[in-house]
């Protein structure tokens, strides 16, 4: 009888030790994952970061924000808070600071976000958004000699939009800027979703630190919204290269 009780006690003790060890391991893994996330996004616990809001080009005023951009900002705010940091939401035309002081998530293309224009001109001079509402052909993101032109949805074609996702690391240290510039608000939202859900893949492809720029494809946004996103290309080298100046015309 004593042997039976002893075996039961040993079994219970072993189970308890195993359960505690499992909990400690899970806690350690969560802390490591949180530390990696904080390092990648430049969001140490207790810090603040900027969420830069674009304007809605089809809205009734300069302060209108598209509902997909609102959803994207909410998902970014959840990401920031998961790093124990605090988001500060600010309009694109109200930011008056350089890079590095705070981590930053800048949402929207150059037609809707003045901050994006500044980031592209300074850190990504090889990128151009080709869009003219008065032209019938769809817009494109042009990086170096590559063109990523949107495809309209039709009866026999799913269509797609593209988005540029970039991390800009300030020279000499400081907090990074994440630039999320899609061809429309749905593409912005899709790129944010890719960023928040594919951190491990981005670290594997691009590394935990440093500047990168990638192009994403949003498949059939008219039907799937921001849910179906594909990695298309790493365009870091072309995006960060200064385009060659056109040769001056010779006088005849």
TrEMBL record:
Keywords, ordered alphabetically: Membrane, Transmembrane, Transmembrane helix
Transmembrane residue ranges: 6-29
Name the UniProt record assigns to this protein: Secreted protein
Native source species: Kitasatospora viridis
């Amino acid at each position: 009888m004593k042997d039976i009780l002893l075996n039961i006690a040993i079994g219970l003790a072993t189970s308890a030790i195993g359960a505690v060890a499992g909990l400690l391991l899970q806690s350690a893994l969560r802390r490591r994952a949180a530390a990696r996330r904080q390092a990648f996004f430049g969001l140490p616990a207790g810090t603040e970061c900027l969420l830069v809001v674009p304007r809605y080009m089809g809205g009734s005023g300069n302060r209108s924000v598209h509902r997909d951009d609102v959803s994207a900002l909410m998902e970014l705010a959840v990401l920031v808070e998961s790093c124990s940091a605090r988001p500060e939401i600010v309009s694109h035309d109200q930011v008056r600071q350089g890079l590095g002081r705070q981590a930053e998530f800048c949402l929207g293309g150059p037609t809707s976000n003045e901050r994006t224009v500044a980031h592209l001109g300074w850190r990504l001079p090889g990128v151009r958004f080709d869009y003219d509402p008065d032209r019938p052909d769809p817009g494109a993101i042009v990086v170096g000699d590559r063109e990523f032109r949107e495809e309209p949805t039709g009866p026999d074609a799913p269509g797609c939009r593209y988005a540029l996702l970039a991390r800009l690391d300030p020279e000499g240290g400081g907090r990074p800027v994440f630039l999320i510039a899609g061809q429309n608000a749905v593409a912005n939202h899709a790129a944010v979703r890719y960023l928040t859900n594919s951190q491990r893949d981005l670290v594997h492809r691009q590394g935990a630190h440093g500047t990168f720029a990638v192009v994403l494809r949003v498949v059939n946004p008219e039907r799937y919204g921001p849910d179906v996103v594909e990695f298309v290309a790493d365009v870091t080298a072309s995006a960060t290269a200064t385009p060659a100046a056109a040769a001056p015309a010779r006088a005849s």
